[in-house]
Specification:
It is built from twelve helices and ten strands. The chain has 354 residues and is α/β, with parallel strands linked by helices. It binds S-adenosylmethionine.
């Protein structure tokens, strides 16, 4: 097993594809909205412009409701004319064009009919400093912290490391995740104002389960099919990895196991792991039609993993066709083996206390 360190640079599938195929993430976000609203109701501010940051916005559609809720809650206290800055951040490769188009055109855009709201964007990894110290009143961060800053190790027997049978792979991923979580918290702690709040929602896992077994294993089996058919090599498979993994509550809480219960001036106000939404299973049970379920989950899988697979095939002239073929095969596999998508969501609210 070699050391396959590759920094994470690929964002989501572009041209608005993620916006059109991220209903699962939107449904997961809705579980955190009342907690988010209570954070907006309690954060302290003076007479300055209010600053809301969306860390890992992707193409923006799923940010509209949380940002609208925060603006409404803050202005209910600060007055309806208070200026609000909304800063969307993501990797430089993100499709920011779709984000700004969604701000203009989406029916649920927080810009609809709004005055005095100023959206902008930062294209830089959030493992770096993104904003000057003490700028941010509220930070929203949904479905991003499963992405590691780099892929720390090759995985010979799966595309998602926690489903590998190799302990060495698990250890390497868990260490990378722990480093990333601490670094992310340190960076955000500097950017938050005193009393600011940061809500993070990302794939979680209970003690005894990982989740995502069915979809990720079918994707791996589709890759093996392509290798068996001579379309991909063993070496290609070794390098096609999606550097994502869910976290347990214990690892989320680990940096806060200090005497003060604080890490970098942050305290956990709320942390829980919830069952994740399955948007397709009930309809499948009613109709027995596996095609909509397979199409829906294939779109979701491609939206987040397609560009990372394509990046691993750099140098192959036919890589776009290979990625199309992979997801065609995934859809076919899901049609013939429909299952409930079991996964879990971590919701964490952090408070800047010192
Ligand atoms: C699944 S999308 C989530 C989008 C949106 N927040 C939502 O709730 O649907 C994950 C996003 O995290 C971004 N991301 C991953 N690693 C990142 C990093 N190091 N810095 C900034 N953004 C990152 C990806 O580019 C992608 O746009």
């Amino acid at each position: 097993m070699s050391d396959g360190v590759i920094p994470t640079r690929a964002a989501m599938e572009g041209d608005g594809y993620y916006n059109r195929h991220s209903a699962m993430q939107a449904a997961g976000n809705s579980a955190a909205l009342s907690l988010w609203q209570s954070a907006a109701n309690s954060v302290a501010f003076g007479d300055e412009s209010l600053v809301i940051v969306d860390y890992g916005s992707s193409q923006g559609k799923n940010s509209m409701d949380p940002i609208a809720i925060a603006i409404q809650a803050l202005r209910a206290r600060a007055g309806s004319e208070r200026f609000v800055e909304v800063i969307h951040t993501d990797l430089p490769s993100n499709d920011f064009t779709s984000l700004f188009t969604a701000l203009e055109n989406e029916p649920q855009s927080y810009m609809r009919g709004a005055e005095g709201i100023f959206p902008s964007a930062v294209g830089r990894s959030y493992y770096e400093a993104l904003l000057p110290p003490g700028r941010v009143h509220l930070g929203w961060n949904s479905w991003t912290m499963q992405w590691m800053s780099q892929h720390p190790i090759d995985i010979p027997d799966h595309i998602f490391g926690l489903h590998s049978k190799f302990e060495k792979v698990h250890d390497s991923l868990l260490q990378q995740q722990a480093r990333d979580w601490r670094l992310f918290l340190e960076r955000r702690a500097v950017e938050l104002r005193a009393d600011g709040r940061l809500l993070c929602l990302f794939p979680g896992r209970p003690e005894e389960k990982v989740g995502w077994e069915w979809l990720t294993s079918e994707l791996w089996l589709a890759l093996l099919d392509m290798k068996d058919n001579g379309l991909l090599s063993g070496d290609d498979l070794l390098h096609i990895n999606i550097p994502t993994a869910p976290r347990k509550l214990a690892s989320i809480r680990a940096p806060f196991a200090t005497e003060s219960g604080q890490f970098a001036g942050l305290r956990i106000e709320h942390a829980e792991i919830l069952p994740g939404p399955d948007l397709h299973w009930d309809a499948f049970e009613r109709t027995g039609d596996a095609f909509p379920l397979a199409r829906g989950w294939t779109g979701m899988m491609r939206a987040f993993s397609g560009p990372t697979v394509a990046a691993a095939l750099t140098g192959k002239p036919d890589r776009a066709a290979l990625v199309d073929e992979l997801f065609r095969r995934l859809e076919t596999r899901l049609v013939s083996n429909p299952q409930r998508h079991e996964h879990f969501v971590a919701v964490v609210l952090l408070h800047k206390v010192s």
